[in-house]
Amino acid sequence: MTVSRFYSPQSIAEATAILRQQSGCQVLAGGTDLLVQMRNGVKQPEYIVDIKEIPGIRDVTLTNQGLTLGAAAPAQSVTERPDIAAAYPGLVEAIDMIGSTQIQGRCSVGGNLCNASPAADTVPALIAVGAVCHVVGGEGVRQVRVEDFNTGPGENCLKRDELLISLFIPRPGVGSADAYLRFTPRTEMDIAVVGAGVSLSLDPMGTVSAARVAIGAAAPTALLVEEAAAAIIGTTLEESALAALAAAAGAAASPISDKRGSAGYRTKVVGVMARRAAQIACDRAQQRQRRAH
Amino acid sequence: MRDAVTNRFKVIGTRSVRPDGIEKVTGQANYGADYSLPGMLWAKVLRSPHAHARITSIDLSAALAMPGVHAAITSDVFPDLKAGMEDSGEGEVDFHDLSCNVMARDKVLYHGHAVAAVAATSERIAEQALAAIKVDYEVLPHVVDIGVAMAADAPVLHQDMFTVGLAEPAAAPSNIASRSEISQGDLAAGFAQADIIVERSYRIPTAHQGYIEPHACVVSVNQDGQVDIWASSQGHFMVRDYTSKVLGVAVGSIKVTPAEIGGGFGGKTTVYLEPVAAALSARSGRPVKMVMTREEVFRATGPAAAGIVNVRIGARDDGKLTAMDSEVILDAGAYKGSPAATGARCMYAPYNCDNRRTVALDVVTNTAKTAAYRAPGAPQAHLGVECVLNEIADSLDIDPIDLRLLNAVDEGDRAFFGAKYRAIGLKQTLEAAKAHPNYHRPLANGQGRGVAVGFWFNFGLQSSATINVHEGGTVAVITGNPDIGGSRASMALMAAEALGVPLETIKPHIADTESVGYNDLTGGSRTTFASGWAVINAAEKIVESCRQRAAALWEVDVETVSWADGAAVCAGHDPLTLAQLAAKADVTGGPLTASASLNAKGAGPGFAVSLCDVSVDRDTGKVDIISFTALQDVGKAIHPGYVEGQMEGGAVQGIGWALNEEYIFDSQGRLENPGFLDYRMPVASDLPMIDTVIIECPNPGHPYGVRGVGEPPICAPMPAVTTAVNHAIGAHLTTLPLTPERVLAALDSL
Amino acid sequence: MAIHVTTSINAEPVEFLCEADDTLVHVLRDTLNLTGTKEGCSTGDCGACTIVLDGRLACSCLVLGVEAEGKSIETIEGVATPGALHAVQQSLLDHAGLQCGICTPGIVVAARALLERNADPSEEEVRYWLAGNLCRCTGYDKIIRAVLAAAQDLREAAS
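The joint structure predicted for all components is written out below.
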């Protein structure tokens, strides 16, 4: 490790200016991925740009419109909020799965996304709930859907002088809910072998009227699987619908075989996670409907 | 003896607060990496990027030229030691191999093998200097799997290794270092008597001890050649002796001060860093500190041996065993010396059977030289025998504990490994398991139960202790075994008991190699047994001296003076307490001190039983431990809290090895998971509470009935978990770990 | 080039110099001689280096020394008062909740943080909270019992 300079910009403009002026910059938020990557030589930045002192970038705001997560907000500042867990139980479960309590105090949802690991827990959950990235760069501001943000393992769509500032997640309706499940050999401290996030909406009759299904660790990036959603839209999640959902999730998967699991195992289990997550999301949506009455 | 032992204690058996506890909960305790010296350099090791290669050249010049670099070495600085086994106090060691493992000569034999080292003014500069060392390698074919390593066409690691122990001398070198066989009775006749024969082959992966403290030391070598070492290890006398061999320096020139040890489990029973740091210190004239990274710990220290265990057992319809035949093949890593023969001697130890044989094969591979891990060799070997016994019990519809009770050894039986058992608690432990509520909990669908027995001989060996009584009556108890899991508490309890004084007056210490008599290392569960015995003997000498001093003060015959409740007592005189006698030490013969040393015999064998319930997710293959019960005959629990701790910790290590822990190598022989993220040791949320049952069948070979406690707990969990999973899914999995993927594949193939 | 950092450690003002990529655990242990914080893995997987940074737990191996600028750090050295151990420390001693002790400083810091947030945690909550603190000796059993008992002690002391 030979980092020659550490920047702590106090504004977005200052940050993007540094990024624009210098090559070899690495943005630092919680650092829980970056410091490991620097230690094992995967990343060898010349400059570190710590964005945590930018005003507002660690803010977490829930309104009637939705949830805004500052890109560097520590996971714990989200998971400790019962109001957010009530509105987005699946997303909060996914956030809670990143590392240990110690990691939770540092790591951020924005960092989890930008790190672009195919196995990142929050990414399928964010895709499922329709999260949108707010990106600022030298050339201005743009919005990117989370499913379009990452372009490959360790690669995202940010240009050199762009920063992810925040994520916005619209508030779910009365008959809507989300769920995220991952599979790991241990209960904690593991990287997902596969993961699946589902959000769905029920009509007053209990039929699925809308759904989004996303899978993780099953392809170079987390995937929005429209065929899986289509398999349950218009159903009441009867067994055949769940089976079709699982099959669609498995069919969309193109995983690698590595030390954490074979491609065959991942393909099989991603369907299991997807159907279980769908069932949980459905149960939650039903509860919300009952509570609303 | 039994009643006398169990009833007579005042402080032994209480759950006192450990004497070294405050330092450890406040962060004041100094472990290996916590020592620093003025002017100290940091050293780092350059390690092989290849699993097997010939070193054609090493050029240190660029590294040595870097500002801040004070010394750089290769194995050239160490004497080329003669090959051959030498007695090292605890087992035999080939110091040629040990030296080559500390730093490679000619060939590197595993990815991570030390090649060179640099000392510099900072860790950062030392790391940068490593990158400046030029090493040329001629890469050779490698083999990391023992099954493949035994094949005739396998790459041979050592051209001078010819299998020892064959009927005919080996004609060609091979990776099989040795073959040993023990047989009794007539196997063919035994199998002929059997109504049922079960035969299985088990695979056990390489597992690491997983201690949280990486290896670390600080070494300072003076101009006069005096070597001072501060290091974390399981035996500072071992560090002294091994470093002396590797450096070619007299033992008398080396002093080792033990740091607190942050876990070892057998993995800190040899040296990796200390000779390197000493050589660098001698060349730089500065103290040198070395601390391994976690990756180095995984790649380059000794894990537990991978194994193949083939077992064939025959039994009559009533469950009586008629024949047992097994082959235990264990992976030594890069240099010979796996515990295959040791494991083979343990696996039959719990049972009587007239006709049996074990064959043990010690095999080398292009992986790090293995080291001890709790009851070395026994967990691997027990896996095979215990799982097959459970399968026989299932087939015969006999309760698996009843099957074991029917065949269990007891006092007077001759053990498979030769000795005749004195009092042992195997049957009591099995009966306790059978009576335990956890054994009768109804199992739900998808759940399964497994039971297994584990055995370890326990060790005695050499120990020394010194007791100094201070003015005021406080007592320093000085021993020489690193306290790895609370042994200071045991020493204090035994000293207080023997002296009859309050526990609070005892202060136990672990002294350096110059300040207490020789001690073999902390291992084989010998410390509480043997060092505790030395403490008892030293305390009894103090008592004897006190009686003599009191008799002199009272002007009575010493035979009329007895010792009770920490005081000399004689009719017609007020008792003289230890404190009073210590205050008069100057007029009764000088300081009140005593030392005792012994080579302890009579270590009582230890037996343990594990009961395990699991539940299996049939869609993912994930196994959850829902109940685990560890039962063990411990002889006498000196401190029941730390005895339970050994049982619980061993249980969880066994669970981890059974379910998730393994070394994963890539096609180039590189370890793919050298970190705690992907070497998956159990975390707190993976586990239920571990229920423990202490059985006390006092060891007649120890004054307080002590048996070693630390090894048997890891012997039985692997077969108990494996059997529970097999029962839950109705399969016969034989390859560990029982990863979700393996379990799901088994479910899919049913 | 070394960077000058001003911070607070255990309520004491502290200044130090470090390189841009020095980790906080390195600064604590090797620069400031606060060796109570242990380094077991350097990748955030073992929890031995647990500290509190501005009120939140962190692995000090995953924090840069320069990030301490203007922050408040609490380490194991600040947990006990001169006269008394914290309830978690005492409970670990009373329940034989440590064997080798290398994970203990991290466990103490993490468990104290739990009990400050949740006075009456369930066994499961304690297990999940401490999932990032590896212990290889104890099998966790006595650690969990000790933390639950410490919680009870603190509740009784508060009532």
